[in-house]
């Protein structure tokens, strides 16, 4: 008995270790890491090394718990400014987008497999949400810098669309297992939705406040604090679920609230959360990999891949274009958002539900969902960076590398103690002064400490300690960054010429021979740009004006354009080529569909 | 658009001596006035107005001042290689030693921008720029430019 215990622990630990080591492989080859975690599970599993695991209930239990941890963390690590920037389009994608994708997918699955529209939609709901872990991880490791607006949109979408997919899946499983039909759909499901999301939102906000309150008031032991927060977040999740709300939504909202409440010791809490999230992901993917039975994939492999391609090339792009249409995204951006529809653990987790609900053909559902996730991770995960570059959505890194350390200050949530190492070639090393508001306090040079006032010009290798408000670090980063190497396509991005944003727009119109309306004739160039960009200009944004394009090169802390570029390139034709090729791609896919159908 | 329609060998100043941005533009305006038969003051005023919007120094020691003139019959370029670089308020703060002045008719619309981006692309190529810097005579500079643009177009 005791030997068994040790054996189970040993096998489990070895698997987790293997998964953790595979991360080294992932960063070397740019493989989607989650795919590796999943593979470790698959290889160890019943068709690989022969580890038997078929307890769907236990897998669902562990997966759910892991997901709660991951969602809390993804809320906790999201700055509220990022959330605000992308909330409207992201939440549209997370609700209507998921629904739209599921319905489109359902129609295709019904048509292809002849399983019935409801069953098809259930499968659609299962693979309806994008995976936060996959999206965050791949955006981070792909080494590309995306425009803020797109990055925020993708991160917020992937963090918030799980509750919708979970809700839809559960609703459809219940409907199917009670043998209900369309007549049961409608009002009750809608009410259920309002109840789940409403309760989830309220409970999340209250829970977040509660967590923030606890941390502020209780003086718990330093080491215990992260555990306390973890336990509280899971309590919020469980309580909300028990009351009939969406625990997943609640735990995300609570994380978002607590993470932005200006908590003391936030950095160490973050580090702990990060570790927990890694562990949760590894365990979740391992268990799901173990649960799968690849030998059963044969039967559904071809339809699974076709459905995955349908999801990737048609269902998601259509749903995304519909959702983003009112928000004025450019077509290239919409295409990219469609491409980052990475599916992941949540889809596999949800695929367990039909099994637990004892729905007919549920194992086939699980296998199809598994194949779809694998296809998505392989196809989209691997090509994410190249697609971003191809659609020209990456921006050159804003600043060179910075060597910076954040230090915790006891009892001071609105100030941070930062330490920068002065790097060769950075503005401070070449004579720029550190502004007064940064309160440069201490310089450590060659192991000796001195006050900033007496240190003279900063030298490479110095460590400077500054005591500042959290609003300013991005500005300081510029001062301490090493000189940015000028990338070749910079001019394409920032325009061939500079323009002074404070100049009158009318003189620009005169110089390039175009007309402005009366209001814009009175404005400065910055004002016109801001107006045409919907009031929120951000780094890298492009505003077409007359025959030229104006580009935001830099904004200050208040979002005012302080530097702008002018590009002569007429609207690019790569998009047209792309649309033409995808157009023919679609018809080819259409033919493929017809082909498989007639074979059936 | 053939590059040879934009500039002629006679419009190249292979070793211009100047000590300031204003003097460079002034001398190039004089050259342009000779070529197109328009008053020098009008030309200078046009390009200075454009400079007020932001320097046309594009970095790496290169500037492309430009503007639109009434009653000009074709796009006209003047190129100068300076003996000593001058400060041009360029974004990268590097002094400028290669200047391509481009004047376009008021009505030229898209052609003006096409010509500008052609010039910008030409002067973005490090090899071409290094060659131009190494030459002291108008003929070699001209043929380097023409060769580089026809190669890139192919």
From TrEMBL, chain A:
Protein name stated in the entry: Probable Na+/H+ antiporter protein
Alphabetized InterPro entries for the sequence: Cation/H_exchanger_TM, Na+/solute_symporter_sf, Transptr-assoc_dom
Listed GO MF terms: antiporter activity
One BP annotation, GO: proton transmembrane transport
UniProt entry tagged with the keyword Transmembrane: yes
Residue stretches spanning the membrane: 6-26, 33-51, 57-76, 88-109, 115-139, 160-177, 197-216, 223-240, 275-294, 300-324, 336-357, 363-385
PANTHER family per UniProt: K(+)_H(+) ANTIPORTER NHAP2, NA(+)/H(+) ANTIPORTER 1
Bilayer topology: Multi-pass membrane protein
Keywords, sorted A to Z: Antiport, Cell membrane, Ion transport, Membrane, Transmembrane, Transmembrane helix, Transport
Gene Ontology, cellular component aspect: plasma membrane
Pfam families: CorC_HlyC, Na_H_Exchanger
The Transporter-associated domain, residue ranges: 490-570
Highest taxon listed in the record's lineage: Bacteria
Compartments reported by the entry: Cell membrane
TrEMBL record, chain B:
Tree of life domain: Bacteria
Subcellular location: Cytoplasm
Segments forming domain PTS EIIA type-2: 5-148
Record carries keyword Transferase: yes
GO biological process terms on file: phosphoenolpyruvate-dependent sugar phosphotransferase system
Pfam families (alphabetical): PTS_EIIA_2 (PF00359)
The keyword Transferase is annotated on this UniProt entry: yes
Record's protein name: Phosphoenolpyruvate-dependent sugar phosphotransferase system, EIIA 2:PTS IIA-like nitrogen-regulatory protein PtsN
Gene Ontology molecular function terms on file: protein kinase activator activity; protein-N(PI)-phosphohistidine-sugar phosphotransferase activity
InterPro entries recorded: PTrfase/Anion_transptr, PTS_EIIA_type-2_dom, PTS_Nitro_regul, PTS_SugarTrans_NitroReg
Single GO cellular component term: cytoplasm
PROSITE patterns listed in its UniProt record: PTS_EIIA_TYPE_2, PTS_EIIA_TYPE_2_HIS
